[in-house]
Amino acid sequence: MKTILKPICSFAVVLLCFLYGNNLQAQRIEHNVPIIVKDAFQQKFPDKEPIWFSEYQGRFDQKLVYEARFMFDNRYSKAFYENEGKMLAFAAVIETKELPEKALRYMKENYPAFPIAQALLVTYASNEVQFEVGIYIDNAFMVQVFSKDGDFIKIGK
């Protein structure tokens, strides 16, 4: 029984962390998603049922962005849309072993005491691909951003 419950509990914890991530206070579940946004999502991801969130982004929080969270290809995924229905980015959770070797080496050299909490493969509307690697440092979630080849780009929160 324990061998069955342990994977289920682990799965539930990962799901909760993903669905209700570290920036939940800035987001809220959205029930009034514009039809143009829903239609754009359904065209890209037919037969998927997302949970919608919204938040204001940008330098002065002036841009409303909608986020669809859903399962895609057996991975927890997110799709981000502008108010006019344009898709901004798609992100999917990946396993640590799927990160480029250069990114893994960078993390081992610079953050040896901090295990990777989450790894994402992000594809932007411009077809630029990046990897985001999340770690906790002093209870703060920090994101290290890498190019598709594994070159370090920046640190985010």
Number of strands: 9
Mean pLDDT: 86
Strand content: 35-45%
Query: For this entry, what is the oligomeric state of its chains?
Result: single chain
Number of helices: 3
How do the helices and strands follow one another from N- to C-terminus? HEHEEEEHEEEE
Helix content: 10-25%
Using only CA atoms, what is the Rg? 17 Å
- How far apart are the first and last residues' alpha carbons, in Å? 39 Å
Largest sheet: 9 strands, antiparallel
In terms of per-residue confidence, which ranges show pLDDT below 50 for 5 or more consecutive residues?
A: 5-25
Globular, elongated, flat, extended or rod-shaped: what is the shape? globular
Instruction: Record the strand order, biggest sheet.
Output: 1-2-3-4-5-6-7-8-9
Question: What does this 3D model show about the protein?
Answer:
With 157 residues, the protein is of the alpha+beta class. The chain has helices at 2-19, 35-44, 101-110, and strands spanning 28-29, 51-57, 63-72, 75-82, 87-94, 118-124, 129-137, 140-147, 152-156. Strand 7 (129-137) and strand 8 (140-147) form a beta hairpin. The longest helix has 18 residues, at 2-19. It is globular. The model is unreliable at 5-25 (pLDDT under 50).
